[in-house]
């Protein structure tokens, strides 16, 4: 199995990795810095640099649900530039894109801290994000935006914790998302903790403190059903 280095350090932008498998789906390595699509966050893009100096673009990264395989979907110019099993390559993510995704993902955790309701869906993009809440009443857009920016500017530090499946079963209130369940089966579950305001299971990449998110704006609050409110956030830069 591929060791996901980003789970412990979201700021790694390059690493060396050994090719463990190649098939029609893509390339697998013994370790990676590429986040695989999941939890509303898109997979990382970037490049693979071979020993020859040739570079192969990575258009996205996925994780097979049943097998857990971490697959880098490559777009080589020709088959000659493809690595072989056992080759050591340099992996480079598109850091500018990743950092924007980190900031927006962390922003949505701040939004969770402000709204006491289960999350029924969500999406993260480079310049925007949204969460759907199981919520009957609406709220004032400007007031929510002001509260969100105040929470972000307070510079809450982020840390990572790990608990067992059994420990999570005893604390069901930690799970905020109804549409995405924490991954089980590995023996431990990762918690993202923004000190004093938000603690929940999450496998995504995040900034080290809330202030790194920067200024944001509530772009839209939509009614998507009797018990569903969709809140869209954009960077205010």
Which features does this protein show?
single chain; 237 residues; alpha+beta; Elongation Factor Tu (Ef-tu), domain 3; Threonyl-tRNA Synthetase, Chain A, domain 2; 2 domains; 6-stranded antiparallel beta sheet; 15 strands; 16% helix; globular
Explain the overall architecture.
With 237 residues, the protein is of the alpha+beta class. The chain has 2 domains: 3-93, Elongation Factor Tu (Ef-tu), domain 3 (Beta Barrel), CATH 2.40.30; 97-235, 2-Layer Sandwich (Threonyl-tRNA Synthetase, Chain A, domain 2). Helix content is 16%, strand content 37%. The chain contains 3 helices and 15 strands. It has helices at residues 95-114, 141-153, 165-169, and strands at 3-4, 14-23, 26-29, 31-32, 46-49, 55-63, 70-74, 88-93, 119-124, 128-134, 158-163, 189-194, 198-201, 216-223, 228-235. The strands form 4 sheets. It has a 6-stranded antiparallel beta sheet with strand order 3-2-8-5-6-7, with no helix packed on it. A 4-stranded antiparallel beta sheet has the order 9-10-15-14, with helices on one face. Strand 14 and strand 15 (228-235) form a beta hairpin. Helix 1 packs across helix 2. The termini are far apart. The model has no long low-confidence stretch (mean pLDDT 92).
């Amino acid at each position: 199995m591929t060791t996901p280095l980003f789970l412990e350090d979201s700021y790694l932008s390059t690493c060396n990795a050994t090719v463990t498998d190649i098939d029609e789906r893509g390339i697998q390595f013994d370790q990676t810095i590429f986040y695989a699509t999941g939890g509303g966050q898109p997979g990382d893009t970037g490049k693979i640099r071979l020993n020859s100096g040739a570079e192969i673009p990575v258009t996205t990264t996925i994780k097979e649900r049943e097998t857990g395989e971490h697959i880098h979907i490559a777009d080589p110019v020709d088959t000659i530039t493809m690595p072989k099993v056992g080759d050591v390559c340099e992996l480079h993510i598109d850091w500018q894109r990743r950092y924007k995704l980190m900031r927006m993902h962390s922003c949505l955790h701040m939004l969770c801290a402000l709204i006491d309701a289960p999350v029924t869906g969500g999406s993260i993009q480079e310049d925007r994000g949204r969460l759907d809440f199981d919520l009957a009443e609406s709220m004032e857009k400007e007031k929510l935006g002001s509260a969100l920016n105040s929470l972000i500017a307070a510079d809450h530090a982020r840390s990572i914790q790990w608990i067992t499946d059994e420990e999570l079963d005893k604390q069901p209130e930690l799970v905020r998302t109804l549409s995405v369940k924490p991954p089980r089966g590995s023996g431990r579950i990762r918690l993202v903790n923004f000190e004093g305001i938000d603690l929940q299971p999450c496998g995504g990449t995040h900034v080290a403190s809330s202030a790194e998110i920067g200024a944001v704006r509530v772009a839209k609050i939509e009614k998507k059903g009797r018990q569903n409110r969709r809140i869209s956030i954009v960077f205010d830069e």
